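ok here's Receptor-like serine/threonine-protein kinase, seq below lol
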Amino acid sequence: MENMKNPWLKLSVLVFIWFFKSQISFGADTITANQSLSGDQTIVSSDGNFVLGFFTPGNSFNYYIGIWYAKISMQTPVWVANRETPVRDIHSSELKISDDGNLVLINGSQVEIWSTNISSTNSRSVVAVLEDGGNLVLRDGPSSSAPLWQSLDHPTHTWLPGGKLSLNKRTNRSQLLTSWKNSEDPAPGLFSLELDPAGNNSYIIRWNQTRQYWSSGPWDEQSRLFRDVPEMRLNYIYNFSFHSEENESYFTYSLYRNETTSRFVMHYSGQIQQLSWLESSRQWNLFWSMPRQQCQVYAFCGAFSSCNEIGLPFCRCLRGFHPKSEANWNLSDFSDGCERTTRLQCEEDPNLVTGRTNKFLESPNVKLPELMAVEFGGQNSWICNNIRQILAMAELYIRLAASEFPSSSNNNGIIIGAVAGGVGLVLCVVIFAILRWMRRIMMNPKVEGSLLAFGYRNLQSATKNFSEKLGGGGFGSVFKGTLPDLSIIAVKQLENIGQGEKQFRSEVSTIGTVQHVNLVRLRGFCSEGTRKLLVYDYMPNGSLDAHLFLEDKSEPLAWKTRYQIALGTARGLTYLHEKCRDYIIHCDIKPENILLDAELYPKVADFGLAKLIGREFSRVLTTMRGTRGYLAPEWISGVAITAKADVYSYGMMLFEFVSGRRNSEQNEEGKVRFFPTSVARAITQDGDVLSLLDPRLNGDAPVDELSRICKVACWCVQDDETHRPSMGQVVQILEGVLEVNVPPVPRSLQVLADNSEHIIFFTESSSSPSSQTPSNTSNASSQAKSNT
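and the structure came out like this:
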């Protein structure tokens, strides 16, 4: 005992006790009644896939008990216990089995802040086990099979394989998948996913658990997908199943391959997202998200702000307003909305006559929400039902303090304020009548199936007589337009259409049913005699070629972005080739036909137009600028064109992803440089693939990804189409699901490299041994519709 008075000895004993306690917990998958977690201690599932312990998100100073992936480099929580009650000191906080058999979290003040809240008969035998699938289970003893409690029954924002989102038939209450508040706050946010209590076997997303703004549509057992989520047709990752029992209905899913790391997340953006981990790029890859457009999320931007799909950021405060919480806005949490920068005069002195001191600012091109309070004058406000429709073609006037305007008098603002204050409700009625009349005159599209049938004059007005041209090609020119509901569209004027009215409408109707996150959505059409037009969603970032083939001084697309565009494009083509009801061969894949949305996600455009053009299509292709370099050799050999022609074009485009330049270029000496040949030689001779990379990227690309894309590109451009992979296999290779072998060098590339005139069309194709395939995974190849 005397020795214990030595301070160094006491310190050594304390360090030993701490170390021993840490080793009891670390590396094991179980917490027993005589163990606890605190500080940096964790438990790990038996297969090493998941970890349970304290974590802090982002730059936050708060700590939470959570479960995250163990084998990926980015810490990604999938479940959080104390979402609303974080702790600050993890060394004085404990996760342990309490005396009543519950798993509880105790903070530094020895206050219980979270509990499993179950009843147990023998608290000393209760154990908590972290299972291989990321499920934390509380059992009445190690050998007990029935769980007392499990985290999969209490999901937070992530839906893991094996988990279920159910509807309790007795209480008619659903389990919720609830978003985080923002990227650094796991507290329950405003958005939640649940099985529809109406019992129609569909999932819905609600704002604040009240307002529904998205539905998956009902489950179709035969096709095994939700009606309004066509992306599920590209399902080689998940195995979904629906169960209906006496007390509950629920969906669950598993992974076809255990090597895949994938999850569903109710994101704080208000979108449900499907994500897969790509180890090669060390990032989560977005497969799809719903709703497809960010501004379709109800109240995403909060009060006194606008949502804009054209560019980032999506949310902006109205003129005269500023973010209510800059900190939350910086974390992409816009729910607080905006507040006035300068108070109105009537708020400072109610006795002032508002029309003389405050003014109205015109704010054009704003689409109002379904219900909105509109101010007319001083202290009056009227609630007009369906105000979104009433004011769909009017400008919005924002009432601001006079100091928000330039010092020079604004007579128009004063007049507007005075008139608005005088007429009140009468003006609301007048606006409704006028705008309803104008809507009838200017636009009254009919609904045909899922598409709108526009009149030619409607589109002529929307595009301001086709004055703003976005681009053009052999199929026709594209113009920017604005509909009366203020949504922006792209209108394509088709050329060389020889089809009759009935056939044209039938083909357009087929194209309109094709929906996928990586395909441009067709919204409507116009067919009046020889005038044939298609109306699409507008893509604010234009086509890929404008971003890929830039001047050396311009900011190039980062490799990470290029890879995601390549993968998304492959997914869109896979859907066209393999999953939609009427299989579609695009026939014109090139950077000009890959459009980019506000977040640079790719959308394949012009699909289905080959059939619309009909017999004129081959002539259009051969005269279209920039297309010849993407044509497969079978185009002039006289054989029937298959989906493998798209694969060839996609491969030629991949080469340009690597170099950032057109495949064929003439140098200063007049000699033609053909880049695909350089790639083929480099990968077959173990060359330096980084030397192939766009020099503007300064070598900033993972070698394994660069090598993978180069190999895939060479497989895609094999002369014999039977040796090319399917687009479905391309997707799996780019995702890292399949490995890719070194391809043979196509003879055509060798011929082109030796031909200074760069002959694009050729009839001779080389043959390689049939045993050579792009993938060495035999069962994946055998399941593909087209063996490579």
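fwiw The mean pLDDT is 78. kinda neat tbh
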